[in-house]
Design goal:
Distance between the termini: 29 Å
Helix content: 10-25%
Order of helices and strands: HHEEEEHEEEE
Number of strands: 8
Oligomer: single chain
Strand order of the largest sheet: 1-2-3-6-5-4-7-8
Low-confidence stretches: 10-23
Bound molecules: copper (II) ion
């Protein structure tokens, strides 16, 4: 959708009396499951904001240390997470850290690392600028979130983060409203 038509859609929604933000600002959830048993469990909440997709990752049962978290191409966690394919990379950009590099110089789901403590739990809060859940070239709804065995060192092509220990598909959820 071109910026102009996005604006028009927003105005049309407002005219219909639907909350302007709720009309196209989607919410999402990914439930992270382990690729091995026993293993990592977690939830990822996602929300469209004017600044991009706001992401909160919460993990338990993970090996202590840093683990890369990325959005991968396909919404399929079969075969130990391999069915998720490679990094979602619509513009064939280098690997990076999208909060700093933007979608012109990083993959849209390059969200860096989560810090996991000795108790196996950790959280990561990050906003992915230029990314959207709903629709458009940088839309991530229906793709997957992969947690890797090692830290992302931001090297090419995918950050040298090793195997896939956790995976979850991003589904769109009912908007949270105050009504
Ligand atoms: Cu990855």
């Amino acid at each position: 959708m071109k910026p102009g038509s996005m604006w028009a859609a927003g105005m049309a929604a407002m005219a219909m009396g639907i909350g302007a933000a709720a009309a196209w600002a989607e919410n999402g959830l990914a439930v992270i499951g382990s690729t091995k048993e026993p293993g990592v469990l977690g939830t990822v909440t996602l929300q469209d904001t004017p600044d991009g997709v706001a992401v909160t990752v919460q993990l338990a049962g993970a090996p202590p240390g840093q683990h890369a978290v990325h959005i991968h191409q396909y919404g399929d966690c079969a075969r130990g997470g391999e069915a998720a394919g490679g990094h979602f990379n619509p513009e064939k950009t280098p690997h990076g850290f999208v909060p700093k590099d933007g979608v012109t110089s990083a993959h849209p789901g390059d969200m860096g690392n989560i810090d996991v403590g000795k108790d196996g739990s950790g959280s990561l809060t990050v906003t992915l600028p230029g990314v959207i859940l709903g629709s458009g070239p940088f839309s991530v709804g229906g793709r997957s979130i992969v947690v890797h065995e090692r830290a992302d060192d931001f090297s090419q092509p995918t950050g040298n983060a090793g195997g896939r220990i956790g995976c979850g598909v991003i589904v769109l959820t009912e908007p949270m409203t105050s009504e």
